[in-house]
Amino acid sequence: MEKIIVEGGHLLQGTVRVNGAKNSAVALLPAAILADSTVTIDGLPNISDVNTLNSILEDIGAKIVRDSNQKVHIDPSSIVSIPIPNGKVKKLRASYYFMGAMLGKFKRAAIGLPGGCYLGPRPIDQHIKGFEALGAKVTNEKGAIYLHAEKLKGARIYLDVVSVGATINIMLAAVLAEGKTTIENAAKEPEIIDVATLLTNMGAKIKGVGTDIIRIEGVKNLNGCRHTIIPDRIEAGTYVIAAAAQGKEVIIDNVIPEHLESLLAKLREMGVSIEQSDEQLLITTKKNLQSVDIKTLVYPGFPTDLQQPFTSLLTKAEGTSVVTDTIYAARLKHIDELRRMNAKIKVEGGSAIISGPIQLEGALVKASDLRAGASLVIAGLMANGMTEITGVEHIERGYENMTEKLVNLGARIRRETMSDEEVKQLDTKI
Ligand code: EPU
Predict the structure, then answer these.
(1) Which end of the chain, N or C, is more open, meaning fewer C-beta atoms within 10 Å of its C-beta?
(2) What is the band of 50 on the pLDDT scale with cuts at 50, 70, 90?
(3) pLDDT tens for residues 122-176?
(4) Mean pLDDT across the chain
(5) Which strands make up the sheet holding 319-325, listed edge to edge?
(6) pLDDT tens digits along 81-114
(7) pTM above 0.90, yes or no
């Protein structure tokens, strides 16, 4: 087991390049099942979620060739519809995309309930509602979901909750269904457009992606194709926030600025200077940042995945800021850890109220989930002295080479193997 050690107070300067989007990648890989021939996906981030999905694909018979770190060729022609075992499925949330993809291709699937970051309850009732509307019988037996359909037939599906996962999963199941499917109240995240682009290149007929009504006309079969993943707006946003918190002048490269409008607007309100071109952002921060309130919303609102990193930045702002997560109300595990670092944060009525400016102090802290990890790394960069962060495995699920990228920007940050004694202490804390 490893921990991250950060010596705070060093200014960041230089360029950081953003990888392909994790939340696209984790849907694009299962989507490859739907094709009859090889699908090539380029721009894959080298993160543990991607490795886990590739390994599940191999378990069910896919032939996978990795060209480079980023490019993978998936030949799905020998995939068989066998039950997907619990172990790997539990490692990540996105394993639920195997339900839609296997159901679409084989009209049957058996898969353990997905895991992933604990952010409070994360039901999948809307996914199931969609599969059932398409004609599948869905049962839950001993922690595994069984899906079966004689045939899938297009349907009109209204999502009661705007859900990224349900929108993508229903698209995956519907592209090979007979007839027309309409998804109403669909999510509009850029990752959904990316998945629809892959499916369209495979031969699917999909209209309206990026609006709240998606129309799909089923086709008989889908072919292999090549696809390049969009840049990761959440990874980009994380480095933008790090630059605003502790940067002198930082260029974020390989970014689509339009995907980050809500974040950039809030940073400008705080007094951060941002220059943008087609694929880059230049972040120059000022000393006296002003407090702002944020409320997370579905895209194009402020992303829940950037709420935790943004909270760390707000400790530095003058005045009181209020952070409310309307997507995952319980996504507040980073708050106790930031308090250990001297942050003044109260939680009231589900909102975090941050009083600043405060000088954070180094401490021993634990990342409880992926974005909490990012928030603690940013806090460590801002803090006086040394911060030690455990729970690194969460960070590895979504950020490729985070410590190396920050070192290149001038941060003093490293990973170290934990001693047996430290691992024991960590276990007793849990
Ligand atoms: N929801 C339901 N029923 C459902 C599905 C969702 O009530 O059937 C609720 C959820 O509990 C939540 C809201 O709807 O309150 C939105 O959930 P959504 O389904 O959109 O989330 P998700 O698909 O499970 C993806 C990302 C998350 C990101 C959210 C919101 C992936 C693999 N995960 O999750 O990413 O926070 O969308 O944008 O794409 C992360 O990257 O750190 C991460 C957690």
Answers:
(1) C
(2) very high
(3) 889 999 999 999 999 999 988 889 999 999 999 999 999 999 999 999 999 999 9
(4) 95
(5) 294-296, 319-325, 351-356, 344-348
(6) 999 877 888 888 889 999 999 999 999 999 988 7
(7) yes
Longest distance between any two alpha carbons in the chain, whole Å: 64
For residue 314, what are the contacts with CB-CB under 8 A and spacing of at least 6?
291, 292, 321, 323, 354, 356
Q: Closest residue (by CA) to atom 11 of ligand 1?
A: 122
Q: What is the 3-state secondary structure (H, E, C) of the chain?
A: CEEEEEECCCCEEEEEECCECHHHHHHHHHHHHHECCCEEEECCCCCHHHHHHHHHHHHCCCEEEECCCCCEEEECCCCCCCCECHHHHCCCHHHHHHHHHHHHHHCEEEEECCCCCCCCCCCCHHHHHHHHHCCCEEEEECCEEEEECCCCECCEEECCCCCHHHHHHHHHHHCCCECEEEEECCCCCHHHHHHHHHHHHHCCEEECECECEEEEECCCCECCCEEECCECHHHHHHHHHHHHHHEEEEEEECCCHHHHHHHHHHHHHHCCEEEECCCEEEEECCCCCECCCEEECCCCCECHHHHHHHHHHHCCCEEEEEEEECCCCCCCHHHHHHHHCCCEEEEECCEEEEEECCCCECCEEECCCHHHHHHHHHHHHHCECEEEEECHHHHHCCCCCHHHHHHHCCCEEEEEECCHHHHHHHHHHC
- The phi, psi pair for 63, rounded to 5°, reads -100, 120
Name which residue sits closest to atom 14 of ligand 1, judged by CA: 163
Closest CA to 40 of 75, 7, 4, 1: 75
Query: What letters, b where the CB count within 10 A reaches 16 and e where it falls short, cover 250-282?
Result: bbbebbbbebbebbbebbeebbbebeeeeebbe
Q: How far apart are CA 229 and CA 242, in angstroms?
A: 24
Q: How far does the centroid of ligand 1 lie from the alpha carbon of residue 89, in Å?
A: 16
Distance 119 CA to ligand 1 centre (A): 9
Atom of ligand 1 nearest to the CA of 119: 44
In this structure, the residues whose C-beta lies within 6 A of any atom of ligand 1 are 23, 26, 93-94, 117, 122-127, 161, 163-166, 187, 234, 304-305, 327-328, 370-371, 398
**How many Å lie between the centroid of ligand 1 and the Cα of residue 327?**
8
**Amino acid symbol at 399:** Y
Rounded to 10°, the helix 233-246/307-314 angle is: 10
Catalytic residue numbers, as ranges: 117
